[in-house]
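stage 2 :: seqdesign
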């Protein structure tokens, strides 16, 4: 019995802004003799949902802070309300005191983003007061880079965003 795994996303958008995305996978099994190779292809649109990861640090997550991703399209002008959409917590590393956050980035809507330190109670309501004064510089989407690790402590003063390392998520 051969198995083929498929990944799908269910996305709810309103006025061009993604409200949430639910990824899920399923497998289908086909009974074929073991000496026959079978390949099942499902035609679909070009992939446009990419998972982006952000690793904070002890200084970033202090005072129960969270992380938001602010996104925009440099051509169309589409943009999330500032300070962005709260990211989803993937894991907490207690030994090294950091969180890993993720968000499913839609390249059919946005091409750029930045990470913002926000109030842990931020409710994706565009409340500027939720911005807790730390952020990265602007990042242009690159499908080959999906993991961003915050650097040394740096409070945003309008000129100096926090540094970060861009790489590939280890579990990809």
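stage 2 :: out
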């Amino acid at each position: 019995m051969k198995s083929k795994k498929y990944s799908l996303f269910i996305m709810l958008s309103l006025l061009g802004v993604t409200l949430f995305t639910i990824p899920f996978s399923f497998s289908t099994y086909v009974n074929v003799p073991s000496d026959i190779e079978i390949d099942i292809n499902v035609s679909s649109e070009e992939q446009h949902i990419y998972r982006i990861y952000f690793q904070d640090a002890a200084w970033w997550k202090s005072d129960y802070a969270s992380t938001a991703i602010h996104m925009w399209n440099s051509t169309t002008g589409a943009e999330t309300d500032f300070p962005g959409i709260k990211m989803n917590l993937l894991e907490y590393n207690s030994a090294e005191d950091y969180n890993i956050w993720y968000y499913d980035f839609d390249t059919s809507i946005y091409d750029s983003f930045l990470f913002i330190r926000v109030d842990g109670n931020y409710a994706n309501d565009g409340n500027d007061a939720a911005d807790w004064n730390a952020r990265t510089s602007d990042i242009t989407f690159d499908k080959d880079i999906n993991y961003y690790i915050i650097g040394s402590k740096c409070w945003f003063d309008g000129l100096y965003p926090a540094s970060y390392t861009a790489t590939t998520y280890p579990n990809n």
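stage 3 :: structure notes
- Residues 151 and 164 are 5 Å apart (CA to CA).
- The chain is about 0% helix and 45% strand.
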